[in-house]
């Protein structure tokens, strides 16, 4: 009996030593669980990641009468434990309507959140910039601009974008178009290092179009996407800088979804998923990929594409998540948002009623040459789907000089030869951790200390961060 006990003790000791060696080999650190309201907290970003700390930034903006409207910043230490949490309420007054626009990490120490606040009583709308600065661990609020309005329903729209190199932030106020009158659009471009104005310009458009979105080039120019109000005309772009404006038109009858910019050799290339308009208007079509040289206003290609071939439900959006340039080739990463009807027993009068639910899933990776021709079209690992989740399905993680995509099971490289998956099983280091699911969009590599961070859902709004050295 004693020999058996001694043998059991040594076996347990050996297992503990092996486990410790494996853990030390990867320096696995599992943080304590923290509360995170995934369904309420929107546009969540992991930011300011270095060898000492990282932060999680999110916004809650509910429309109900008792709705919460606040910005949340959580700080985590090297052991992935929550060490501080700051909240900023942006409900300045119950008389105001507050609308969240966007948030951007504008430099190494600051993240700015843009809020539009409109007053029915004061007949004005303000654009607020709430900035969290990690150097003083506090929020500040600045009104960037104020505009008169006729009513809440006739207030304009705030549109914003950050340049791909992160140097310039554009904030636009597109005034409400009333009875086909000219539209005034006010643009301000900021230097993100100090939020000083680079230039400010007010433009009046006489055409029957509206401003739907904007892009910012790496040199601080603003690209406004003009959307027609009729079925007889098609989108075009207006490029604005401090010297003036220039209209860029596209060949063909194209219905363009949200575009993306990339600057290569001082040439701005624009990429957009679209479909070619025909006699019978289509809806929610994603059949073409436009490559457009914005600098000289020429269409390089509008490729026929197949995307989401295995998606059984309705595709409601295809987003271009990232465009990279390497070895004289473009690599374009896409993500699909699909919608399906799910039974909901919330209506006692109609218990079998169906409610549409949207969720994200991976799209395709496109490899293109310099003239816009598609060289390869590879579906991104379809096992990355997370049904009914609000998070995205993958992140693009720089690691050892390469770009990897993180899915729920592997970190794989499709960069050098996108027909061969180079799998890197970074979950082997985290086996044994109890969790419901991984949120791959938050996978982040920190080169300062050679550490990979992952975020896991443990259920009931409880989450944990883990890290290891691959």
TrEMBL record:
Keywords: Signal
Residues in the signal sequence: 1-19
Protein name: 6-bladed beta-propeller protein
Organism annotation: Sphingobacterium bovistauri
């Amino acid at each position: 009996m004693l020999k058996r006990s001694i043998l059991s003790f040594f076996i347990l000791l050996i297992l503990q030593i092996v486990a410790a060696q494996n853990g030390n080999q990867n320096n696995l650190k599992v943080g304590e669980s923290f509360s995170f309201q995934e369904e309420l907290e929107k546009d969540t970003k992991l930011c300011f990641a270095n060898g000492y700390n990282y932060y999680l930034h999110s916004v809650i903006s509910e429309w109900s009468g008792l709705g919460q409207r606040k910005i949340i910043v959580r700080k985590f230490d090297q052991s992935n434990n929550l060490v501080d949490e700051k909240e900023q309420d942006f409900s300045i007054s119950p008389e105001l309507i507050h609308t969240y626009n966007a948030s951007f990490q504008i430099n190494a120490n600051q993240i700015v959140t843009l809020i539009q606040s409109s007053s029915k009583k004061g007949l004005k709308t303000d654009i607020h910039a709430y900035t969290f600065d990690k150097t003083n661990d506090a929020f500040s609020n600045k009104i960037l601009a104020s505009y008169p309005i006729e009513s809440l329903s006739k207030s304009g729209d705030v549109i914003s974008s950050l340049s791909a190199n992160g140097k310039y932030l554009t904030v636009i106020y597109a005034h409400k178009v009333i009875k086909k009158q000219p539209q005034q659009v006010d643009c301000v471009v900021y230097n993100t290092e100090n939020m000083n104005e680079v230039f400010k310009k007010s433009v009046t458009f006489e055409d029957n179009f509206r401003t739907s979105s904007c892009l910012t080039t790496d040199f601080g120019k603003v690209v406004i996407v003009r959307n027609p109000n009729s079925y007889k005309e098609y989108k075009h772009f207006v490029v604005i800088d401090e010297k003036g404006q220039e209209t860029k038109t596209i060949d063909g009858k194209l219905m363009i979804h949200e575009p993306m910019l990339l600057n290569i050799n001082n040439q701005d290339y624009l990429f957009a998923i679209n479909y070619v308009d025909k006699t019978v208007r289509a809806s929610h079509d994603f059949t073409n990929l436009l490559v457009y040289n914005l600098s000289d206003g020429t269409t390089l290609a509008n490729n026929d594409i197949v995307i989401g071939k295995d998606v059984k439900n309705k595709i409601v959006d295809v987003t271009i998540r990232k465009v990279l340039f390497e070895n004289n080739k473009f690599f374009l990463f896409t993500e699909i948002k699909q919608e399906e009807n799910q039974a909901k027993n919330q209506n006692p009068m109609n218990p079998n009623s169906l409610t549409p639910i949207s969720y994200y899933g991976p799209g395709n990776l496109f490899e293109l040459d310099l003239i816009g021709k598609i060289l390869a079209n590879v579906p991104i690992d379809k096992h990355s789907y997370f049904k009914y989740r609000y998070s995205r399905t993958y992140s693009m993680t720089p690691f050892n000089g390469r770009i990897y995509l993180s899915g729920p099971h592997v970190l794989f490289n499709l960069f050098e030869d996108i027909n061969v998956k180079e799998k890197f099983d970074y979950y082997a280091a985290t086996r044994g951790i109890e969790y419901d699911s991984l949120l791959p969009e938050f996978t982040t590599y920190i080169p300062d200390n050679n550490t990979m961070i992952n975020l896991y859902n443990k259920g009931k709004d409880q989450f944990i961060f883990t890290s290891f050295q691959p």
